[in-house]
Amino acid sequence: MNLFLLTFFLIYGTVHGYFLLRARQGLALGRTGTALLALWLVAMVIAPLAVRLLERGGHERIAQLLAYTGYGWMGFLFLFITLLLVCDLLRLSRHLAGFFVRVPTIALFAPRPLFWFCCLTAALIVVYGWFEAQAVRTEQVVLPTAKLPAGVERVRIALITDLHVGLIVRDARVSRVVEAIRQAAPDMLVATGDIVDGHVSHFDGVSEMFRGLKPPLGMFAVYGNHEYYAGFGQATAFLQRSGFQLLRSDQREVGEFLTVVGVDDLAARQRGEFRPEDESRLLAAIPSSRFALLLKHRPVVADASRGRFDLQLSGHVHKGQVFPFNLLTWLHFPVRAGLTGLAEGGWLYVSRGSGTWGPPIRVLSPPEVTIIDLVPTSTSSAARYGRSS
Fold first, then answer.
1. 188 in the same domain as 152
2. Are 18 and 80 contained in the same domain?
3. In terms of Cα–Cα distance, which of 58, 45, 44 is closest to 6?
4. How many angstroms from the chain centroid is the CA of residue 350?
């Protein structure tokens, strides 16, 4: 954790330093203006840590206000830097082209108009991203299988992940997710981690929303990395109060044809409880006649598990949450959001997530509730995936 904090403050502080440098160039700030801006930037650098400390100390209102301010600024800053770097690359290209052909001067590339252009554009994107983060979409997946019992026309599974219930994602936003689930009337609800992202033991209303769903085949959940960051004990209590059965390298037989396997997140290594060999062992023990549903937070298909499950459900990457950061997440998790067929058989579905982490915005990555319909192969010969509402 100390290494993580050191790395975070080093990178985040450097980004703020770069912003200060460009602001001085673009705004021609004097000593007083530079000092005031520097104080603001220092406050924003330490804001994420201050939010956690205030929250743990029970100062919820102040922590919430600082969370909106600090994380909103974080979203603005990274968008600003991205826009600035793109413009700098264009300016460099123009400069290089000037060695070969005559290139007209572009007024936008002057320090002052460039600074304000990036500021205003980033601010507009933040406003758009705020509204996109509120608009929960329902994604529909139809998956044919020969393993449904005779006479069963459909089994419906609802998936949520990366909700990050905490200071920012609270009752109002959770209610939209729960209502989308309720309207779909699923037979089962599954959650693939990062449902919790704060001290939520006092959010009794959120637990009651989930507990009121009562899908006939039950509710199952696995841990993500943020359940460990937020506090393992209180995260467990919250999920259990919400009605979820927790699977930690464990399995449950559901009805005549379905077996649900849940594996713990890699963050469990910090507690010395991670058991990577259990995944393939649990899957190997499932009869081939039963539909094997694997719940796993990170969208990684283990080599030893390939060909041993019918469907893996994952989240974690948020599809980058804010474009173009999906390009960065792709470097570490080179899988696309949505449904992917695997060469060894079976399917992988990666959700964009149902909430937000950090900046309370989403850009070109709207939150989702996923509805997966398992249907007989006689009903549909090919899998289908797309937005239903």
1. yes
2. yes
3. 45
4. 10
For 167, the 3-state DSSP assignment is coil
Are 128 and 142 in the same domain? no
* Exposed/middle/buried for residue 61 (C-beta within 10 Å: 0-12, 13-18, 19+): exposed
Residue type at position 170: R
Count of structural domains, the chain: 2
Cα separation, 15 vs 80, in Å, equals 10
For residue 346, the model assigns a pLDDT of: 93
Q: 135, exposed or middle or buried, with CB in 10 Å at 0-12, 13-18, 19+?
A: exposed
- The answer, as to whether pTM is greater than 0.90, is yes
> Predicted confidence band at 91 (pLDDT cuts at 50, 70, 90)?
confident
Same structural domain, 250 and 344: yes
* Residue 260 CB-density burial (10 A; 0-12 exposed, 13-18 middle, 19+ buried): buried
Backbone φ/ψ region at 361: left (φ over 0), alpha (ψ -120 to 50), beta: beta
Shared domain check, 152 and 100: no
Look at strands 219-222 and 188-192 and give their pairing: parallel
Judged by DSSP in three states, 230 sits in: helix
Q: Strand, coil or helix: what is 151?
A: coil
Query: 333 and 298 in contact (C-beta within 8 Å)?
Result: yes
User: For 236-266, how does the pLDDT look when each residue is reduced to its tens digit (9 = 90+)?
Assistant: 989 999 999 999 989 999 988 999 999 998 8
Query: In the structure encoding, which two tokens stand for residue 301, read together?
Result: 């298909």
> What are the DSSP E strand ranges found in the chain?
137-145, 155-160, 188-192, 219-222, 245-246, 250-254, 258-262, 291-295, 311-314, 338-341, 347-350, 368-376, 384-387
What are the tens digits of pLDDT across the range 314-365?
Answer: 999 999 999 988 888 888 888 889 999 999 999 999 999 999 999 999 999 9
To the nearest 10°, report the CA torsion of 45, 47, 52, 53: 100
Structural domain span for residue 102: 2-132
The answer on 340 and 309 residing in a single domain is yes
| In a shared domain, residues 342 and 278 | yes
Domain with 195 in it: what CATH number? Answer: 3.60.21.10
